[in-house]
Amino acid sequence: MNTFIRKSVLGVAGLAFAxxxxxxxxxxxxxxxVESMPVAVAVQADxxxxxxxxxxxxxxxxxQSRIELSDEQVGNVKAIIAATKKTGMDExxxxxxxxxxxxxxxxxxxxxxxxxxxxxxxxxxxxxxTSGWGTVEQxxxxxxxxxxFLKALKQVDGWQDMPLTEAAQTVQVSAxxxxxxxxxxxxxxxxxxxWNS
Length: 197
What we know:
single chain, mainly alpha, about 50% helix, globular
């Protein structure tokens, strides 16, 4: 109860008591009792929680990896979640997207890495301009890259019922198809933390 309401209630109670003492029993009943006075109560609404069963419906597969994230990486998580919501896809799609970006770039929006580059792969999802993902400018834009990934994911028949690594691999066509699974728990934790923030 806030201080103003408490003082008001106590003040009314004090007046009622004083009125009863000085005016006698007949007028004491005329003043409202503290119990009958409405009291405003402030309730802090928590953000709605995410249904965690939807985030990892098949359970995690294999050993899980986890990395500490910088502010930039967390910003990329939020950009992936925002793009997922914008496309009308659910939390599970965000988990698949974030796990994929964790594997492909550790959630860093990578430009061309010179000799260390895998062909012309760039951005969060290591998409390639020569494979039709978009221009360099597009695939290094987190919203565009996520939307392109999700558009391809939507075209995978039954992706919602697949293990994460299978859904991600169907889109990414990686030389290491099982590596996406190791990021599922961290991706789910990140979606649970940031989906409603």
